[in-house]
Automatic annotation (TrEMBL):
PANTHER family associated with the record: ABC TRANSPORTER ATP-BINDING PROTEIN
GO molecular function, one term: ATP hydrolysis activity
Assigned keywords, A-Z: ATP-binding, Nucleotide-binding, Transport
CDD domains: ABC_DR_subfamily_A
Residues covered by the ABC transporter domain: 6-235
Protein name per the record: ABC transporter ATP-binding protein
Name of the encoding gene: yadG
Length: 313
């Protein structure tokens, strides 16, 4: 993918009172991807979304949405964006059909019942179209929020903590909805503090901390680059210390010398001291083992390391 739909350059946001919510944020979102923005509470996720959507003015920097400056060309930029907020702010006594249709009108779009029907069916809301919102479950209300955001046919959909406070089953249903939207050509940007949400769905991941974009990486590359793996060898005989030939490997002894633990990543193989080299060296030293198992760090492990575990336990 090399076709940016959002370009963010040199973005700073300082609120009255001096609090700096965003610091020198540069980010490009590619057309048709699912981009997950991860960060602890208060890291700047919602502020960044609000600036891109034109709800908050930046102190410095600029944002292009599908080629339109979101300040100078606000209307053109904003009509390309659908925003699903965290809060369930729905018109309690209005019907599903009317509230979604009304949202379309807010963007100056002519009525298009066939589009509203398509959106409601894609979100499994068609059977509920005449129901008042107050009668819907929490999950259905969240689907209505997405339907409202899609009512004016945006090319980009922002989901701010889309599954916060919902149960695991509903969360997985929402993930499937998001995938279908992407398959239909909508670019998805979601903020989340559920690590598994980003790990499950995102093509790329950005990590924001204290208003700074710490890292942006393709998910697979991020897992490969930063996701360390651990190989544990259960030895036949205990070791009291590591032989000199093993000093170049990142090894540690456990279980009174009966366990040899090797921490590594994919780059170790390329550098000539990966698992195969380790096993060859062990054989040469006459060190035998009766069992082995591996463990790979999750995205959560990577995330905690990135945002400093001492300050964000």
């Amino acid at each position: 993918m090399n076709d940016p739909i959002i370009s963010i350059n040199g973005l700073n946001k300082t609120y009255q009172g001096g609090f700096q919510a965003l610091t020198r944020v540069d980010l490009t979102i590619q057309r048709g991807e699912i981009f997950a923005l991860l960060g602890p509470n208060g890291a700047g996720k919602t502020t960044l979304i609000s600036v891109v959507c034109g709800l908050v003015n930046p102190t410095e920097g600029h944002v292009l949405v599908d080629g339109f400056d979101n300040v100078r060309n606000y209307r053109q930029a904003r009509e390309r964006i659908g925003l699903v907020p965290q809060e369930l702010t729905n018109e309690a006594f209005e019907t599903v059909w009317n509230t979604v249709s009304f949202s379309r009108g807010l963007f100056g779009k002519a009525p298009n019942p066939s589009h509203i029907e398509k959106v409601l069916k894609s979100l499994a809301l068609w059977d509920k179209r005449n129901n008042r919102l107050i009668t819907l479950s929490g999950g259905m209300k969240r689907r209505v929020l997405i339907a409202k955001a899609l009512s004016h046919e945006p090319r980009i959909l922002f989901l701010d903590e889309p599954t916060a406070g919902v149960d695991v089953e509903l969360r997985r249903e929402m993930w499937e909805v998001v995938r279908q939207l992407r398959d239909n050509g909508v670019t998805i940007i979601l903020t989340t503090h559920y690590i598994e949400e980003a790990e499950e769905m995102a093509d790329r991941i950005g990590v924001i901390n204290r208003g700074e974009l710490v890292l942006v990486e393709e998910k697979a590359a991020l897992m490969s680059k930063l996701g360390s793996k651990q190989l544990t060898l259960n030895l036949h005989s205990p070791l009291t210390e590591l032989p000199a030939s093993l000093q170049r490997f990142e090894l540690s002894l456990a279980a009174e010398g009966y366990e040899l633990i090797y921490t590594y990543d994919g780059s170790k193989e390329e550098e000539g001291y990966g698992i195969s080299e380790l096993l060859t060296t062990l054989e040469r030293e006459g060190i035998t083992f009766k069992d082995l198992h591996t463990r790979q760090s999750s995205l959560e492990d990577i995330f905690v390391d990135l945002v400093n575990p001492k300050e964000y336990p």
